[in-house]
């Protein structure tokens, strides 16, 4: 070829590239240099077919050599075509002659969760990302369980997403392949995300998915601290003994919600109580009144609060209430208010008294955290007994604590309680 022809060819190619946007240039580069990602089934990649880009998984030879695996894959492929869910990826089987070679995913632009986090690890810190991912997987796992289907392997390189979306997608579910005698072969290189009983070829159930989801959650936070609401749940979910795990996805979800509520309530109560107690302590410290001149009087009943006599006269015992009924909810709320007021008054009285107010600042503040925990514990127990939602119980509880704190603060001011001159060592 002459030099002039080479120059014209180069100019045409250069013009073609200049006319591309950034995404098109990436696609062109990937088509020339395709990237492969390992998954439990085989190599995941994209290539162009009839002018369109499609995603394939080239199946591992160790799997395609198994007749049991091939038949199970065919069976699941037919099931996936009938199963309609936004979280389910469908696929077609591709053969090399008579031999099963690969699967072709439905049309779309896909990525694995592992690849997404490798490219953009900061996305885990994005508000709502982890919660949305976990809740979506909880929802779909629960749906699968209702059909007696178990995924069994929530490895990050086996959870897919459409690019620019955070909705998790699942491809093949482990329970379809339970007839395979060599389960470790099916989960090669992702064994840590599979429950021990599954790898041993034992029967799998919901607790097996609980284990795998626990491992995935731990992976999501592997580059940072695991939040309080997930930390204890992950530990229980990933127990090697299935009997020590949560029995269902629903139980696991509820445990996370409860831990999150406890954390928020504890922080809220601790801050509120600490501020109110500190303000009282500093005020009392500013007074210069001799303790010998203190005259103790009975507390003044604050309007709006219920007396101990009323509590005794109106005590109600209710075994169960249907809080969806407005009348019963109001009744349950009344019972809760009475009981929590009495309990909170007793707890707060441990701090708002002459002996405690006369203690050193170190001793005074040391008891604040434990008192907040005690208030929260009583609040949860009484809410459960009365049958009212935790959110409503928290709101009512906060109102009662604020009113009681204000009353006791006025009482202390009236009687002139002060700090002792002797500081604790």
Describe this structure in words.
Helix 11 (249-286) packs parallel to helix 16 (390-415) and helix 13 (326-349) packs parallel to helix 16. With 425 residues, this protein is of the alpha+beta class. The chain has 16 helices and eight strands. The strands form two sheets. It has a five-stranded antiparallel β-sheet with strand order 1-2-3-5-4. A three-stranded antiparallel β-sheet has the order 6-7-8. The model is unreliable at 289-294, 300-304, 306-324 and 416-425 (pLDDT under 50).
Outline of this structure?
The chain is an alpha+beta fold.
Give keywords.
disordered C terminus; five-stranded antiparallel sheet; alpha+beta; about 425 residues; 16 helices; three-stranded antiparallel sheet
List the helices and strands and how they pair.
Blueprint: H1 3-18, H2 22-32, E1 37-38, E2 42-49, E3 52-59, H3 61-64, H4 67-82, E4 91-96, E5 99-105, E6 110-112, H5 113-119, H6 129-145, E7 160-162, E8 168-169, H7 183-186, H8 196-199, H9 206-220, H10 228-237, H11 249-286, H12 308-313, H13 326-349, H14 354-357, H15 361-386, H16 390-415
Antiparallel strand pairs: 1-2, 2-3, 3-5, 4-5, 6-7, 7-8
Helix pairs in contact: 6-9, 9-10, 10-11, 11-15, 11-16, 13-15, 13-16, 15-16
Run of helices and strands: HHEEEHHEEEHHEEHHHHHHHHHH
Which bin fits the share of residues in helices?
40-55%
Q: Order of strands across the widest beta sheet?
A: 1-2-3-5-4
How many DSSP helices?
16
**Radius of gyration, in angstroms, nearest whole number:** 32 Å
Largest sheet: 5 strands, antiparallel
The total count of strands amounts to 8
Low-confidence stretches: 289-294, 300-304, 306-324, 416-425
Beta-strand fraction estimate: 5-15%
Structural class: alpha+beta
The average pLDDT is 79
